[in-house]
Amino acid sequence: MSATPAGTFREESGRLAGDLEHRRRIASAMGKYETARGPRQGAFLSWELGRQALADTKWEAVNRLDEHLERFEKEATARGTQVHWCRDAAEARDAIVGIIRRVGARRIVKSKVMTSEEIHLNSLLESLGFSVVESDLGEYIQQLKDEPPYHFVFPCMHLSREEISGLFHDKLGTAEEHDPEALTMIARRVLREKYVEADIGITGANFVVAETGMISITENEGNARLTAALPRVTLSLVGLEKVVPRLGDLALFLPMLATAGTGQPLTCYNTFYGGPRQPGEADGPEEWHVILLDNHRTELLADPEQRDALHCIRCGACLNVCPVFRAIGGLSYGTTYQGPVGSVITPHLRGLQDWKHLSGASSLCGACTDTCPVKIDLHHHLLHNRRNAARERGGVERWVWKAFSFVMRRPFLYRMGMRVARLMRPLHAALLEGGMLDPVRAWTMSRELPELAEETFRERWKRRG
Amino acid sequence: MRSRPLCGIDPVQRAANFPAMTVTLFVPCLMDAVYPAAAMGMVTLLERLGHRIDFPEELACCGQPPFNAGHWAEAREMARPVLKRLAGAEVVVIGSGSCGAMLKVFYRELFAGEPEEAMAAEVAGKVWEFSSFLVDRLGVTDVGARFARRVTFHDGCHGLRELRIKSAPRVLLGNVRDLELVEMSEAVETCCGFGGTFATKHAAVSTAMGEVKCAAAVASGAEVVVSNDASCLMHLRGLLVRQGVPLQTLHLAEVLVQS
Fold this sequence. Notes:
Helix content of chain A: 55-70%
Number of strands of chain B: 8
Number of domains of chain B: 2
Helix content of chain B: 40-55%
Largest interface: A-B, 63 and 64 residues
Radius of gyration of chain B: 18 Å
Number of strands of chain A: 10
CATH class of the largest domain in chain A: Alpha Beta
Oligomer: heterodimer
Number of domains of chain A: 3
CATH superfamily of the largest domain in chain A: NagB/RpiA/CoA transferase-like
Number of helices of chain B: 14
Shape of chain A: globular
CATH architecture of the largest domain in chain B: 3-Layer(aba) Sandwich
Strand order of the largest sheet of chain B: 2-1-3-4
Strand order of the largest sheet of chain A: 1-10-7-4-2-3
Strand content of chain B: 5-15%
């Protein structure tokens, strides 16, 4: 039953929604995030104007995507970077494997690259016999655990330090250690070796700057710097919506990304990479490759209604505030991008009918839209996905709504329906409620049914004359 | 300083601020069947303010359920008679932020490119959620009510984020005599988890969300949770009663008619 994405989602989300320890852990982490973020956001002269400015810049970038990307290619190429345009996952995988084989690499170190999850790069490289190590601490932990990232900004936020300690003990043979700093030191000792041994470093990018041909990477651990600087070849895998027109745009993007994402004034390390080692320079990689990945992004671009989903800077704020995410966690989604933005874009990236259930799994509360620093109309796009899915394939549900509409538009049938409901209510309560045959069991399992008034408003109004 | 009337509404303020209107009351199915007292309360208050009530009995649903489920053709079919009937109204008042948002915000999207597009825009301008109508349209902040209980207010998401109503219900509650208004300190603007068919399609998730909200309401120390959205109240009550928590749920209009 759980072979389909929808079936798996139903099972996993239901299971985790009932897991009180999981809910407590996520609520506690998100509480800390809110406490940190509030004053940071308040420190902006106007957070709202900032959101509008980011949205405007992204609008400009996305609506002239071709021009900005070509400008980037021109500028980057001028400094020796090799730019590869890849239409889909297969092309990107081929391009990456091609580069790895050509330079004779065996060992690969990666910093955080969500796009690589999208194209299942690690499993491919491992199946071809390469050694791949994640260097972001959270990603490294998830890699050891053989589990995808739980949250695209906080990959292992669902694990306790005891669980991480146990994992290190099992996989690395280290002693049980519950101090976070000591745990970090264990990972650091292992990872430092990997940077030195690696032939290729693979990074992502937070922004791609058209004006200067640079790549901007934001991080808190310094691992991306080592990944980009130490191996002799660097490869950056980038979704093509990451482009911004000007370097100066980042003056606002970087602090707002940090504030929205983690509640920091700025992320610890913000680096602009201008390409491979230049003549006369002492260090830096010999080759730099940028893979510009489309993978259905241009299809989203072709949809004027939802094009703004390409504004996303992957800050994760919409996940952090989402009551659904807090209830079901990140792994239930079964997607590279979790939470509201994942529910919006996954149907575009991986097929509407297979992933429409994510757009359905929302109360449409809109907390995501209110928090989004680039003003993506997230919760309305969930509605749009539902509409597009139902238009393509209405199913039985369409007939249910047709019947509903038929009754509700006819006062006589509506009145009769109300009377029947009132008559049935005691019978339902006595015979069916909460049992396996209860037609509204989904409600009554955890909630009381509403009490129907003795007299409806319409009846009272009529009596009043 | 003029002394405030203890009960009822200051007739001087009434005459000065708002001439009598014909208020078309939209009473959706849930208010009709489960919260008729709230709808009756709205009638009482609006009449006391000198307005005439027009109640189109035939309008039982705005079409939001099929709209949210993605079945927009069926939603349009339901919305069309509503739109036509309300087009002739002077003002339309609704006691549920959710249905209010449907009429005020989503009809415009639902009818974009349809023959009724202009009508949808016109009706949107006449639609008011009840508390916002009193405070923002009529300028009434004190309806002369008395209710000696500790109360917390739950913002329905549609009222809060589609209609941007946050202060109006609080201003009204703040002026109810003997009422103590306490805010929740956690999950302040968090959804109650209802979300229409979501509540049954994803029952476990919806319940988990509701439990968070209920815990926040209990922690506030309130004796009553008040909301301007009937569907949120139904969900919160369903959870609270099942959990055996002695926290009452009331619609804002039910509180405002207490004396």
